[in-house]
Design brief:
Blueprint lengths: L1 E3 L5 H12 L5 E3 L7 H7 L7 E3 L5 E3 L1 H12 L10 H29 L8 H25 L12 H16 L10 H11 L2 H4 L13
Parallel strand pairs: 1-2
Antiparallel strand pairs: 1-3, 3-4
Helix pairs in contact: 1-3, 1-6, 4-5, 4-6, 5-7, 6-7
Length: 214
């Protein structure tokens, strides 16, 4: 298998961490959607990362779909996302909040670095900040009540922990959260526990672009 995309993307990184956690060997193509856009499009016409190229040549896109395929590959006993029941719903809702926070951060970043300065629209950026912090506040409460010293869904690390940690670490880098008031201590503690694991250490990459005030 070959995973395409840079590890400073939380979406690429959550796939890489999951592959390592599941002990699935893979090659890493450290391609940028900026500099390597056409090369990525040759593999996946959508031109987005992550892309996971399977051993038979099939290309999988979208991190959620890739992670579902990996869970199917290893079977329910080893799957990182619970297969049924209330615990699955809780996991999916936790992941959705983290993804939502990342998307609203991305919108703020694009407003700063992709839009001409004269077209920057602060009311839109402020709305995105409000939404991002709304999601982070809910995640903070989940981490405080469900994972004060361990994992979000019980005794073992799951995809909920992986995704939340990858996205929170990204937000610390890209949105300057590390220098903000410590309003998310439980989230930070969960991310720290995850970042101490070998699969997280092996995939840590600093955010490439300028930081955006959060």
């Amino acid at each position: 298998m070959m995973l395409i995309g840079m590890f400073d993307s939380p979406y690429v990184r959550r796939v890489a961490v999951s592959l390592k956690r599941l002990e699935i060997p893979f090659e890493h193509a450290n391609w940028s959607v900026g500099e390597d856009f056409e090369r990525i499009r040759a593999v996946s016409p959508l031109g987005r990362v992550p892309v996971l190229v399977l051993d038979d040549g099939e290309s999988l896109t979208e991190s959620a779909a890739i992670l579902d395929a990996l869970d199917d590959l290893v079977g329910p006993a080893r799957a990182l996302l619970p297969r049924t029941g209330t615990v699955r719903r809780e996991a999916l809702q936790t992941i959705a909040l983290a993804i939502g926070a990342a998307e609203k951060a991305r919108d703020q970043i694009y407003e700063r670095i992709a839009r001409p300065a004269e077209k920057y629209h602060e009311p839109w950026a402020a709305r995105c900040r409000l939404q991002m912090h709304g999601a982070l506040g809910l995640l903070e409460e989940r981490c405080r009540t469900r994972a004060p010293d361990g994992w979000l869904l019980g005794e073992r690390l799951t995809q909920a922990d992986i995704t939340v940690a990858c996205i929170f670490s990204f937000l610390k880098d890209a949105m300057n959260l590390a220098h903000a008031p410590p309003q998310y201590p439980a989230l930070a503690a969960l991310a720290e526990r995850c970042e101490a694991l070998a699969e997280f250490r092996a995939t840590r990459a600093p955010w490439f672009a300028a930081k955006v005030e959060s």
